[in-house]
């Protein structure tokens, strides 16, 4: 969580670095081509971003600082925090928040081929 205060405007960048593995696959497509791995990675990034934005919308609606933005602001801008803290829960719902997810699929374990062999049409 990276806060920024510029011209008395507070903004937050949530940067998420994640990695995952494909441990099992049930299907017919050959998922071991790099373009398919890239597609799966892009999809997992979008899902994580959507989930974080959904949780953030809930937090703003209920005025609950569940991501502890206040702590991040206090730690980076302790002097400015003194003037913000008393009105924090009035300010919190209006803060501009951006989410950046960077994912990586590390491994595909021992999956060697799809569940159907290439010539099997059943």
What can you tell me about this protein's structure?
By secondary structure, the protein is of the alpha+beta class. The protein is built from four helices and three strands; from the N terminus they run ββααααβ. The protein has helices at 34-61, 69-76, 78-84, 88-91; strands at residues 2-6, 9-21, 96-107. Helix 2 packs across helix 3.
List the defining traits of the structure above:
122 residues, alpha+beta, three-stranded mixed sheet, 25% strand, elongated
Tally of helical runs: 4
User: Structural class of the secondary elements?
Assistant: alpha+beta
Average pLDDT works out at 87
Question: Low-confidence segments, ≥5 residues, pLDDT <50?
Answer: none
Spatial shape: elongated
Q: What's the helix-strand series?
A: EEHHHHE
Radius of gyration: 21 Å
Strand content: 15-25%
End-to-end separation: 50 Å
- Give the strand line-up of the largest sheet: 1-2-3
Number of strands: 3
Q: Helical residue percent? A: 25-40%
State the major sheet.
3 strands, mixed
List the helices and strands and how they pair.
Layout: E1 2-6, E2 9-21, H1 34-61, H2 69-76, H3 78-84, H4 88-91, E3 96-107
Parallel strand pairs: 2-3
Antiparallel strand pairs: 1-2
